[in-house]
Amino acid sequence: MITGVGLVVLGVIGLIMPIMPGWVFLIPGLIILADYFPPIHRLVHWARTRVDAEIKKRTGQGGAAGE
Question: Which one of 28, 46, 60, 65 is most buried, by most CB atoms within 10 A?
Answer without folding.
Answer: 28
